[in-house]
Sequence to fold (219 residues):
Amino acid sequence: MKHYYLIVDTETTAQNTVADFGAVIVDRQGVIHEQFGVLIDGHFGTLPLFSDHRAPAEAFFSTQMLHRRRKHYDQLLANGQRSLCSASLVNLWLARVFGQYNPVLTAYNLSFDFGKCANTGIDLGIFSQRFCLMKAAKRVIGIRADYVDFCESRGLITPKGKPRMTADAMAKFIDDTNYDGSLEDEPHTALEDARDYEAMILYALLRDLTRNNLVELGK
Fold:
């Protein structure tokens, strides 16, 4: 029996709702079967994007970067890489992939994305099989000595001197270890983050773990 996974990612508004929703359906071999990326009507463009007023000006989520981030989304809309979509249409897509693939739901910090989707009327609760990809990655990859060495050599360190456990850091480590090490910084757009970073992390875990072990690790 073929097993599938639904990886979800969101970028949010200042009111804790979803502005940008992205998702991919992948199998155990890392093959992407479907991808879906939309901006949520009534939230994107209506509510301000999330920003952190405490962040330095050059940081991605600083208030100074808001205009650049919004301009990038406007470009994605203009060139057809995104469309505006209601939460109800996202739910129709989710219901369809649930029936077609019966996937295990995951996200990098599942509780965050699950809650923001709920605030927006996007129903991830239809997926009874789910786990947190971040928790699983921390327990398998985050404890490795070569991961710690990688983070230290790349400056991927928290203010407290610990290795970063972000999807960006994890994916760069996997890319450096198994591929050509050319992965750029995570763009923080939902579809690309899910497809190009979180799917890589999931596949790395699946190579070493059974499906049941992965779900248990991510709870």
